[in-house]
Amino acid sequence: MNYYSLCLVPDLIIFIFGLCIGSFLNVCIYRIPKEELSINNPSRSICTECGEQIHLWENIPIISFIFLGGKCRSCKTNISLRYPIVELITACFALSVFFKFGITPEAFIYFCFLSSLVVITFIDLDYQIIPNIISLPGIIFGFIASFLLPGVSIQDSLLGIAFGGGVFYLVAYLFVKIRGIDGMGMGDVKLLAMLGAFLGLKGVLFIIFVSSVIGTLSGVLVMIQSRSFTLQQKIPFGPFLSIAAMLYVFWGEKLIIYYILWLRN
Asked: Dihedral, CA atoms, 161, 167, 168, 172, nearest 10 degrees?
């Protein structure tokens, strides 16, 4: 085995680890909204259509999906493409934090943070809810993480929580007062407070700006596609907040610098 091959071994191990965590996240995405909080019950996975127990060899991330042709072995129902997508995204996040932070507590913290955002994103897309079981403990864990993260101080984490949760709460409150309907759920408020706990005040400002841009563009595309130009369409905002947070973790500082330089030119 040559030197180049040896260098690829840690990357491969981390990628496989990420795939396995992604498989676990799929369980969370499916069971948390159904309030099946004990993710070990049932102990073995089953097909959601026919109820047939899924064997261990059918649970190998991505490989089993390909081997089975994307169908249940028993009832031949199509398996959602989301399962391998979540596994692949999580594996890419595992590699990315390793490349950026190395084998450090910072890498572990950000990988857990990003993994929680993957779960939040897909649950919000399906059910338009952001589960408290993730966001509320996430605020606490984010604050505790500020003791270990070199880029976020304890004070910055507290400011991120206060400003993130406070601003969105004010927006939601004013929207209800002005229009008489809910325009933003409290789940988004708690999520932004969680993001502020992990990323601090600067991260919250970045997230608010970037998620608003992405959300606006996505809303316009949805209205064009549906040919319904109204403000009554409900679009989950959690995924936009999560995407903005993911961007900040990897490229936030650079993007801020590029934006400032662009404004000056």
From this structure: 140
